[in-house]
Design brief:
heterodimer; A: 131 residues; mainly beta; 1 helix; B: 388 residues; alpha/beta; Peroxisomal Thiolase, Chain A, domain 1; 13 helices; 11 strands
Amino acid sequence: MSDADDAVTDAGFDDWLDAAEDGAAYYLECPDDHTALPPRRVCPDCGATDLEELALPDTGEIRTFTVTHVPTPAFEEDAPYATAVVDFGPVSLTGQVVGIDVEDVETGLEVELEIATSETTGERVIGLRPA
Amino acid sequence: MSDVRVAGTGLTPFGNSPERTSRDLFAEASIAAFEDSGVPREDVEGVFYGNFMGELSEHQGHQGPLMAEAAGVQAPATRYESACASSGTAVREAVTRIRNGENDVLLVGGAERMTNLGTAGATEALAIAADDLWEVRAGVTFPGAYALMARAYFDEFGGEHEDLAHIAVKNHENALSNEKAQYQSAIEVSDALEAPPVSEPLGLYDACPISDGASALVLTSESYAAEHDLEAPVAITGTGQGGDRMALHDREYLARSPAAREAGAEAYADAGVSAGDVDLAEVHDCFTIAEVLALEALDLEPIGEGISAARDGRTTADGETPINLSGGLKAKGHPVGATGASQIAEVTDLLAGEHPNSDHVADATTGVAHNAGGTVASATVHVLEVME
């Protein structure tokens, strides 16, 4: 974290990052098996409010990716970096591919979650490391 | 459903004017729209205004009444925000209000001031159209999101960067005669292919520019236009809107735009037309790949085939269905909140024979305007037809 460990967090999201750092990332599932990411009180597909936290599978597969050369100021010193949409099975999520040269990233690559840190801001970033 | 006449259109030049406030930009567009319409300001019953990043670029919220004041209109005013589809949604709400018989005359439009933020600042501001927690914090930019879709398209349907380059070449060509366009300069396919990468596989020439500008429309009921003998031959005959999950990763298909398909189907049914009736369209080409996805969503191209439309000449100025004769967002510019209403202005002028590119579509009677927000979690589609 940056200098502000007492900064106001985003409930649900920062809790998820904490869990992911402990190897306990999760997704939400409703009684009709629709899946989603937190923070969420209501199933976006059917409106069910009985959402259960289930363990996110350990690995996922890159569905698509891009290498960004023109970043927002928050990632100025991180560029160029690869961002990927990864299918973990029950849910997909977006993160930065770490631990591999950006030229070697490809669709179909198997990756696992690793909470990384922005070189620019020191903030936590969802990272994806080749499994 | 009764139709809604486009009595007047007004646009500022789109481009680089960092010192101009959005209130000044909208004032200029509204003056042009009122002059074009012949409608007196005192007849306006409401202002429907689109704007996306006013808080970030000008430290200005609550822009509705500010813009009514700038336009010299004494009427209630509301700002609509749906990212890049902000004024598309404003048009749709105004059309609905007039059709319901609640109003006869409305001022509709939008404005955006962006270039004062610089490239990094504007990139940051545009990014907030994505999911902040799950996309922006992972480094997704607006070009990055469309690059994710472009690669997914190539993987699913084929195609390559050179196909996209043909779209940029076409839209620059179309803008040559549009004096309001940000870029009145021809480019070659090689220029696009050799341009620096922004977010691979997209390069500088795949992206619309950062723009300042405003658009305004005077919309009236059929009965008001008839009673006041307005010269308003073009009407909005169909309106549709679609929605989707906010984050790209939450969608089943990464290379399709179901929200635009939904909006298009609704607008076509509303107007009683089909895709085959469409003579021309202005579609939301914020990036070259976005034009491909729009054509397919609107059934102007089969799924997986839109990628070759510009290269093979189907969508060029003298093709079967010319797309973005204004130059599109790519060359005309994309002052975000102004874009949706500006597309209605361009289609109206093209159909009325008042556009520099009208000669390419002399017999056209039906046009479409497609406006999209974010990675198309919001979309509006309007059908316009020549009535007389």
